[in-house]
Amino acid sequence: MNPTDRRSFLLGSAGVILLSACGGESASKGPAKAGPLSISAIPDQDPELLNRLYPAVAKRFSAATGVKVTYRPTTDYTAVVRAFEIGDIQMAWMGGLTGVQARARVPGAKAIAQRDIDADFHSLFIANKSAGLPSFDDAAGLRELAGSTLTFGSETSTSGRLMPQYFMKQGGLKTSELKGSPGFSGSHDATIEAVAKGSFEVGAVNEQVWNATKEAGEVDISDVEVLWRTPGYADYHWLARPDVASGTVSKVKDLLFSLDVSDPKDAEILTLFGAKSFIPTKNSNYDVIETIARELDLLV
Question: Are residues 140 and 127 in the same domain?
């Protein structure tokens, strides 16, 4: 992407779930609690990968905070937001959109950390080569997808649905101009596999997952090509409820910001997150995501 496009489209700087053992209400009423905690995450990738990552994160969080931390997987993005709302989740690894949705339901919730790659995140439009679609350089090229079948990821995925649909609108492509209704694969891995198998001609996918899939070499993507890389925007981040003890939040932040790729134990976690480091973030970095979510009627 050239410098002009980057300045025009960069949407701000840009998420593991901590669940309270006792549950709670949708907002803080009473003193902040120091634990115990359970962690989970929006299920944006293969469950096998998530089940490798988050138990390791739970162990590190427990050592850093001095409280018991347990990993609990969730079924879908909506379940994560709901659990955060009712207080079963106290901290969450959210996507940009799910984070905005959760903050709308829990006043006082704060974005506290993001990966280095989340400050300038990107989606990719990929296609099965058999579709014969040309690559392009800007959003206007999305018009070439009219008449094609297309799948998003989860319905509330930032990189797999919200931002791809936003750029489609910017490029003048309506979902009604696709061949049939868009699909929703449920995760980025599933989107890549669906396009690779020819179930859909085009897919919108998270760039980090695409790169990790290529590097792993476990999925045959020889028949898949990248049509376009979107401009940057804010995405994944950690979100904390207002009833999490400030000392606990500080210790979690200290741990995340101190992870070092030169340390083997830290490198294992960072690699599974697809990042080299974690950096600070704040709610206002997701203002544009919130605006787009309202525009597309996805802030529910």
Answer: yes
